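Predict structure. Input: Tetratricopeptide repeat protein, 334 residues.
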Amino acid sequence: MAQFPGVPPPTAIEPQDPVPRHTLVRSFPILIIAVGLLVFCLQLGALYSVFWFRSRVLIDTHAPPSQELPQNVSLAARSLPRPIPDSSPGAPSHPQVPGSVTPKPPPELEQRIRALNEEALRFEAQGEFGLARKALLEAEKLNPNDPPTLVNLARLAEAENRQDVADPYWKRLVELGPSAGDPYWLAKHRISQRLAQSNRTQGPLFLVGTVQRSVFEKNALRERFALYLPIRLARQGHPIDPGRLALKLYFYDQLPDGRIVPTKAKLLVRFENPRPTWTQGGVEVLSAIYEADRSQRGEGQFYGYVFRIYYEGVLQDEWAEPAQLRFQVPYTTH
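Output follows.
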């Protein structure tokens, strides 16, 4: 081969050796193990998702149409006999005025009663039931027939699992008659519920705690607030299956013509604890954010809500604002 002056001769390119056979043999088992681990992880994830979905609490927010509430007609489960004074130990003994409410107290006294009730609710939210009871009993002394005070005393006793103390308060509210307003309807329902469960040795498994509402925005065009609904396990230590728990939370608006209809507002409902188990203190909080746009004509205003707790298809407890709304919303377990 001819060479030119100053130009180095070309370097021969040596062929590269193929990948050694022993390297392929070693990498093949590693590949098999990696694929096996991937399949195992996928199967484990699928199995976990099955148990996760089974343990999820069913939350229903699709409100059924409301029904008209006939005036002067009780929609309790059954007609109630006239309550008689309760003489069981621990039952309150105060004079009752059937069918009427104590005359409205002076403004300063009424303000004091309201302040004591608000103080009691704060104590109850902190778990200080003794202090809450003390404040409510003081309010009761100022006005023995004050409906909000009697409601709070009854619900506090139920939260303490002292139904024998709660029942007389509900009876006293029924004695006050429809002039007591929402507390009367609530008491009618609670008593009818107790009568329906009179053949049971144990009370409900879950109870609704003190509901709180935080208003973020409210004007002519927009309304936004959050609702916090504590769900209390009434029987501490009782085994529960969250998958058998069903919650019904229905929101309603009132149209300009007075009709009450299921809301069209945007709802975001979830537990504060993503995996509620009722093992930490026996209370889990369900939060609901209500966000409505009122820019279009004909849009209604927020009217109220109904919250019901079912376990294994059996109603455990419920709460509504206003109280009579519960009688306008049909009961469903599916």
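Residues 46-55, 69-101 have pLDDT under 50 and may be disordered.
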